[in-house]
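Protein 1 of 2
SEQ + STRUCT:
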Amino acid sequence: MLLLLGAGACYLVGSLAGASLDPEEACHGVGRAYDRAYRRENFEEYTRWFPLHDRCHAGYDLVPVWVNPVLVVLPVLALLCLAGAVGLTVVRLRSGGKGTS
């Protein structure tokens, strides 16, 4: 559960990167040029759910580089933990519920 909460927090960080109603202001706030033509041509890139991007121009993204890989790794780890827990439960039930304590 903590891994999924971490993924949610990471998504929030990525989606709020450059959190300004004016993307041009956000880009200038970090000292980068804003390319209006690039944003217009790549509208789908910064409006989709995944991967997260909010580019000022072709060479700079306001979303930190670590966000998208973490958004993949944390849910995968959560699934592996869930599979491990189910596997341990099945083994315990098959062995008659006897613990090693």
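Protein 2 of 2
SEQ + STRUCT:
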Amino acid sequence: MTYRLKYDSAAEAVHEAMPQAANEALTLVLAAACHDPLGVTEPYGEDAASCG
């Protein structure tokens, strides 16, 4: 299964406007989620109900 991060220009603008430390932390989290989406994320909403 292929996963893709949806990251539009509005999200990019918010990311770039963050303080440097927060920007770097978010970058690392997003990279980890792209590398191993099932290992570093938790289901929520409708997906969480089907995991139980």
